[in-house]
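Hey there, shall we discuss this one?
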Amino acid sequence: MEGNSNKSRSDEYAAKKGLEGTGIDLPVNRHGNLKSASSDQNLNDILLHIKSSKTPAVINYGSSWCRVCSQILPAFCKLSNNFPKLSFIYADIDECPETTQHIRYTPTFHFYHDGERVDEMFGAGEERLHDRLWLHS
């Protein structure tokens, strides 16, 4: 019986996607401006919203197996609290394989302004990311 409860717990963990699926203890988002895309359809909807609303946004393309992605993700979530007018989106390339085919490095950050992608940053570095966010906010 006990084996079954362990199995269901691991199944439950495996079913989590997006930010919850990373298994990382992440800072709480206080402004509701942090989302995660958990499927290709979900990411397409988010991209359409960015383009139509013209809200400044940053998308963090990462993956659960990428060590550097895991290192920058808590900072990305923390920074979402410092830039409440920016939309922050995390997209796991393994959960959104069709819409992330163009991503060659993880993490990759895409910055949007007035519905258009205006900048791209490869790799991590909290200070570098902060400076880019400041520039695009």
